Amino acid sequence: MFNNFHQRDYIVNFWMIRTELIQMCAMVVAVNKIDRSDANVDKITNDLLQHGVVPEKLGGDVMIVPVSAKTGENLDKLKSSILLLAEMLELRAPVEGRAQGVVIESKIERNCGVVATVIVQRGTLRKGNVVVAGDGSYGKVRNMFDDSDNSVEEALPSMPVRVLGLDKVPKAGDVFLVMPSEKHARDLLEHRAGINLSRGRDSGRNDSVFTGPLFSMDRPEGVNMILKADVAGSLEAILAQ
Q: Which residues cross the membrane (predicted)?
């Protein structure tokens, strides 16, 4: 995904694309913010060309789709392009067995508790499954909702769903796994916690920021604040600055 007019952002992302080109045989490029009056899709297309990304209209095999996340323009075309590419590459994923996938986003909603948006990569995720997400979150799937906010009983590979039932908020990018039972889930998390603790000791890492007295002349200068974000990913982006 490329944003128009953010030179620094998309030049940095070119290095990511060059890496992806080595690992992949095909891709779809989405150029965002075409709703702006000074949108310049051709410039980004030419920049991509200079970095070895040849669009279809110039004889290459890369589909470039101008979109607007704000207005929703061409999002249906982007979806169709991705599906077409997947069909051409004959991409398949097994639907049998316990589900596995990735957490896309997560947050806490009133009256719902922890809500994690996940995408299934293999297997079938069903209501009632016991799920482990990352190194510290697990629970039984109480309910699932698709992208149209309809309650669903199961989610197949490539299907994004919002999952209710986890005990803690997982991080974006965490891998989730369906476990045979809650006991197996707890045992796995305890095992992972032990590994992480051992790694922390070996590296000598100290995650504490300040452990001295609350009121002290030697206390580092700063402003205490409480950050509240809509989703966990937004909070991570703020803290990374």
A: none
